[in-house]
Amino acid sequence: MSGSIPFYQKHHLHYDRGYRSKETQSKVSQYQASSRYSASGSASAATRSRGLNVSSHSGLEESRLSPSPKRAKPTYLAVDKDNQIIGYVVPIFRGSQEFATGLSDTEEARVRGTAAYMARRDLFTSGLEMERSELISRKETMRESAERITLNKRIHEHEEHFKRMNEDSLMHAPEFVIKPRSHTVWEKQCVRLHCTVSGWPDPRVVWYKNNVALDPLANPGKYKIESRYSVHSLEINKCDFDDTAQYRVSAMNSQGELSAFASVVVKRFKGEIDEFLPAPRLGSRVVGFGPVSEYGITFQTHIVDKFGVSFGREGETMSLGCTVIIYPALHRYQPEVEWYRDDVLLSPSKWTHMHWSGDRATLTLTHLNKEDEGLYTLRVTTKSGYETYSAYVFVRDADAEVEGAPAAPLDVRCLDANKDYIIVAWKQPAVDGGSSILGYFVDRCEVGTTHWIQCNDTPVKFARFPVTGLVEGRSYIFRVRAVNKSGISRPSRVSEPVAAMDPADRARMRGTSAPWTGQIIVTEEEPAEGIVPSKPCDLQVTEATKNYVVLSWKPPGEKGLEGVMYYVEKCVSGTDSWQRVNTEIPVKSPRFALFDLAEGKAYRFRVRCCNSAGVGEPSDPTEATTVGDKLDIPSAPGKVIPTRNTDTSVVVSWEASRDAKELVGYYIEGSIVGSNVWEPCNNKPVNVTRFICHGLITGEKYVFRVRAVNAAGISQFSQESEAVEVKAAIGGGILHASPAPPYGITVLECVRDSMVLAWKQPTFIGGADITGYFVDYREVIDGVPGKWHEANIKAVSERAYRVSDLKENKKYQFQVRAANMAGVGIPSLPSNTFLCEEWTIAVPGPPHDLQIREVRNDSLVLLWKPPVYQGRDPVNGFYVDIKDADAPEEAWRGVNTKALEKTYTKIKDLKEGEKYVFRVRAQNKAGVGKVSDVTEPVPALTKPGTKEIVVDVDDDGVISLNFECGNMTPDSKFVWSKNYEEITDTSRLTTETKGTKSKVVFNRPGEEDIGVYSCLVTHTDGASSSYTLSEEELKRLLEISHDHKFPIIPLKSDLAVELLEKGRVRFWLQAEKMSNNGKVDYVFNDNVVSQGEKYKMNFDKNTGVIEMTMESLTPADEGTYTFQLQDGKATNQSSLVLIGDVFKQLQKESEFQRKEYFRKQGPHFIEYLSWEVTPECCVVLKCKVGNMKKETSALWHKDRHQIKVDEHLGFAEGVLKLEIAQISKKDAGVYEVILKDDRGQDTSTLNLTDQGFKDLMNEVFSVIANSSTPLKITSTDEGIRLYTFVSYYNDLLQVTWHYKDSAIAFSDRIKSGVVGEQLWLQITEPTEKDMGKYAIEFYDGKGGLRRTVDLSGQAFDDAFAEFQRLKAAAIAERNRARVAGGLPDVVTIQEGKALNLTCNISGNPVPEVTWLKNDREITSDEHCILKFESGKFASFTITGVNTSDSGKYSILVKNKYGTESGDFTVSVFIPEEAGGKKK
Question: Which of 213, 420, 1075, 1154 has the least CB density, counted as fewest CB within 10 Å?
């Protein structure tokens, strides 16, 4: 009974009433009305029959109260026709029932009339007498009470005096004068246990429930404990089933202790009986529910004008009200009106105001908070019973002050309070604002002030927090705020005030007593001095989080110890170093909280007792406790199932979270399908697994999800439910009807007293699944049918049933009715008449229940059940026949020639669109048996939207078969079968269905799973499909499953190493793709390394690049490096071995790069000194520099001597150059450039000696060679010359002349030489032997360069002819007459002087000489003497010149090779003329 639904949930639509059919609701309401008010109705009828409206009290039927009839208690109230009281009735005659019944009818009528007359006559006179009598009685009662009080006072004073005079002789242990008695009460009634206790000193009395002390303050309004004049009582208000227990009262004083026991049994009212149980018979009564009279009146209570399901928002004010009609209405009579929220009685407070106007009950919630959400129940109680009404109130969150901030927490309360700390707990909100809640801030405020102080600097995630820094004795209230990345929520509703003081002091202030421990405790007035207490016991850690640990223990067992207090000690697990926690002040209560413990460390704890006599031995230490949150976040709830309820609500059920500890409750969210917007359905956690979500939009489809909540946090969401349309529950908007009648009744087997029948499913099932069938039978005698009899009382689910208890050789007819949730349908037509006689044929009976599945254009699947009658031998096979639907009987043909062992087959090769019918025959050893009934015609057509089963292997390697149906109805279900038998064993297969999709998952795929799997969707037009899992297919799927179950993370590149700037070493690889949950372990020589000073790790999950860098390499870093990757189940790793020469080379390069880095911090060479040969054969020494500034100097040196800066030394665009125009051996040497400034210096050296100089010159030679022109032929007067030009000639250039591929040996006839930039080969006096191919080869240290020319043929002839011509010309030129010199151009001579001129003459033969004056030949005479001597010298002499000798003179020489002349001018002047000119 403890698991029953609370009273207020029985009549509330939020729970179970809304799920009944209307017919059931009507029956229940009729039953309740008739049973509740039948007593009042019978009473009214009785009084009306007497003509006087006198209410009769017959609260329970006399036959139900006792075996002998009893007279009803008379009433003294007179009422009118409307049951309104009009006065009192005083009887004038009271007789026994026996005497009254002995009167005759006339006498009895006379007596009734007389009584009525006397009553009317004495109505007022009797009232006056009664008033006078009551007045006298009151006076006497007051006088007696005063005398009794005076006497008791005198007796009490006398006893007190005697006790003081002789106290020791009166002391005695407690005794129970009257012990409490056990009670059996109805639920919601009150019960009082009381006892009388004697003893001196006055005993202290404590009440216990199941050995747990009762604290009235802990349950306000539930328990009331009173003690007056040694009479002690415990009153339990509004009992419920949890109050059924054994109660113990303990009386204790210094002389001892004594206990007494009593049991309370709480029973349920008739109105509380579960509505799903069968209704009791009319007229039955349950004791306590029937009318309980007060002065003979039975009250009838009706609650009308009810409040419905309500929605509010935080901060708003809401009023709930109902009109209450109580009949009859008595003035000054007030019923008991109570309000409950979630089965908790509400009391007036600043949050809740209650008002009763006499006919209307109102509850006002002044300031809504989420704590106010819940099921509100109005309970109106009268002396005749009670009535309740309930409805749910939803409170939505107020708008956040900061957009995106979470909703406010709720239900802030204090779990544990001490003088040093108060543990505050709360519940997490349902709305996080769109981002996860980072934690919570706890604020405190001292009672009486308005100043709030934040208690924690950083948000706490655990929904419990110990608040410290409190002032002892002061009271505080608390509130909590949630925070996420967007901001802070509104504060929660404040907690109840709590005082910061020791629990022992708080208990002493409240006046409660500690539980009896079995010893007499000596009070502080009489302590046992000088005794050191022993060690505490039962020390345990009651709560442990990462913020605090709470210890509790039991005090030592000694009696009468003086003022025991406690010291708490701790030590780190694994050590024996104990440290006292509360060093200054010991604690008084056996409970203590420790803070400031290191998270992750394990501690042990122990406790010592102390008093004024000293400190006792420590208790046994606790087990090692690791500091951390012991409470895990609950797992996600299981499957969520929504069910239609009303046009605006849906019932949501779910599977509870597994292994959830300290579960607070669940939050439900709903979303319109396709909107992806989730709204909370409740803002206060519910601790059940079923909830009604109100306020939904009619006609929309919703999906739901659920989260579990405990102090550790909120779980992940459950899987989304299937979509459900918001409609009324009955039929989803489609009225359900009972099914049509079945048809096709046949006999499958017949024995002497029973027959097995089979029938076909109705063509119309009424919109709901058929729940069963009922079979009726009747006997047919001589063709006349008899009365129908029920063959089965309980519905059968199969379409075959054995009708028993028949008579042999009798004839029977049968009819079948189908039933669904709407009711039982009409019966089928009576079957044919069957004779009940035992079958003796040897062959089997007919198979039955033929079904057609998976209809396609060319195939279908036929299923059947084997015959019930096996024949003489067991059935060993089946034959299937087929024919066109319109074909005659002779057209039947067999589908199979060999008997089928299974009860299904796939029929192929059908014609699209053709209609077919089928039948099946069974065989045994005796032969083939009867044919089955023929199926209905089936067209071979694939229906639109038909889909097939799809096999899938997911990422976890789970193999599943998936089927989707697009034309489902709300009542459709997926039915999976193996070998066409429904799967019921879930050990190997798990079925999952969501929406229009369903799948079966293979738990452990193996050979046992080989077979044909099919899926049928009910309430459709035959949507079905099958999949054959063969051995080969299973093997293939297992291979795929293994690959998915143990996946390998693909890598774009394996682990590699490279050097970075500053010589850092980078190990890296790149994965194809990894999720955000991927992780990497970095391993060196089988040891995992982590982020630190030496290793720097980085994992870019977007690109898949994983890297680890090291600043430098040391010899200790030689070994194997491995990156181990894991992403879910997928793994991979890549290794790189760096040992031996490979490691040394890498280390060397790293060191070089490191030095390079520091070098480049100042002026440095980007490219070191090198040489370059220009096309003009100039050698340029150059280097590229960087990080230069104005103050940086660049100095050139050769052989350690600075080179004088000239126009060839320059710096432009970061390049230094030194140009050597005409390089020679003197330019060989070591060149050096030094960059220098205040940041440092850098040097670059170039060795141009020996091989370095050779390499340079070879490059120079190569340039020269490449600049050479093609080899050409020319002729001279000496012979033929071959020549080429180069851009620049160097004396060190080596060339070789070849003739017919052989080097030429030079002689006087063949010579080579250089003239400027021309290289030539001279062939003197060439002959035909000199004809051939000539070449000049330039040496450049490599392959060299060769230029060739062919001196033969026409080329030779032309050259030779030219040579002959030039040679002749040379001879002529050499031998021709010529004036070699000696004659001036102008001769100025004084008149009278002698003129003598001589010139050289050459020529062979000797030329002829002729002199001319003014172009006229002159001859030798005395004045002008002309001579030609030795054939070489010609002279011209004038002995005395005169002016006539002035003129132009010429000498003309001539021989056979030519003529040449020489001219000069003679100018004769007279001295006097010269002088005159001077003057």
Answer: 1075
Please check the confidence at residue 830 and state whether its pLDDT lies above 70.
yes
The total number of residues shown for the chain amounts to 1479
978 token code pair: 């193996």
What distance separates the 2 farthest-apart alpha carbons in the chain?
231
Alpha-carbon 1042 to chain mean position: 26
Across the chain, mean pLDDT equals 82
Nearest CA-CA partner of 649 in 725, 736, 734:
725
CB 853 within 8 A of CB 1014: yes
Tally of CB atoms within 10 A around 463: 25
C-alpha angle 1294-1299-1300 in degrees, rounded to nearest 5: 130
Provide the terminal-to-terminal Cα distance of the chain, rounded to the nearest Å: 171
Q: Please give the residue that has the higher pLDDT: either 1114 or 505.
A: 1114
Helix (H) / strand (E) element for 1374: namely helix 1354-1375
Say whether the peptide bond before residue 201 is cis (omega within 30 degrees of 0): yes
- Side chain identity, residue 168: D
Helices (H) and strands (E) in the chain, counts: 12, 102
Q: Given this model, what pLDDT does residue 833 score?
A: 93
pLDDT value, residue 757:
92
Residue 729 confidence class, pLDDT cut points 50, 70, 90: low
The rounded Cα 262 to chain-centroid distance in angstroms is 55
pLDDT at 353: 93
* Residue 562 phi, psi dihedral angles, 5° rounding: -85, 125
**What is the separation of C-alpha 562 from the centre of its chain, rounded to a whole number of angstroms?**
59
Q: What is the mean pLDDT of residues 454-462?
A: 90
Give the amino acid at 1301: D
Say what the pLDDT of residue 1213 is. 64
1314 contacts: CB under 8 Å, gap ≥ 6: 1289, 1320
Tokens of 662: 């300290």
Among 841, 909, 850, 914, CA closest to 878: 850
Answer yes or no: are the C-beta atoms of 1284 and 1318 closer than 8 Å: yes
Q: In the predicted model, what is the mean pLDDT of residues 1215-1237?
A: 88
Q: How many CB atoms lie within 10 A of CB 820?
A: 20
Q: Tell me which amino acid residue 476 is.
A: Y
Torsion angle in degrees (nearest 10) through CA of 506, 509, 510, 512 = 90
Phi, psi of 778 (to 5 degrees): -150, 150
Collapsing DSSP to helix, strand or coil, 867 comes out as: coil
- Residues 6 or more apart whose CB falls under 8 angstroms from that of 120 comprise none
Q: Buried b vs exposed e over 21-52: b needs ≥16 C-beta within 10 Å? A: eeeeeeeeeeeeeebbebbbeebbeebeeeee
β strands within 180-328, DSSP E: 183-186, 191-200, 204-209, 212-213, 223-228, 231-236, 245-253, 256-267, 300-304, 310-313, 318-327
Q: Is 80 exceeded by the pLDDT of residue 900?
A: yes
CA distance 1013 to 418: 66
Q: How many CB atoms lie within 10 A of CB 1338?
A: 22
Report DSSP state, residue 868. Answer: S
Does pLDDT of 168 surpass 80?
no
- Asked whether residue 775 carries a pLDDT value surpassing 50, the answer given is yes
The answer to whether the CB of 382 falls within 8 A of the CB of 301 is: yes
User: CB–CB of 1453/1409 below 8 Å?
Assistant: yes
Separation of alpha carbons 672 and 650, rounded Å: 13
Query: How does 579-612 read in b/e, with b if 16+ C-beta sit within 10 Å?
Result: eebeeeebbbbbbbbbeebeeeeebbbbbbbbbe
Structure tokens at 670: 């709903």
Distance (Å, rounded) from C-alpha 745 to C-alpha 800?
9
Count of Cβ atoms closer than 10 Å to residue 251 Cβ: 25
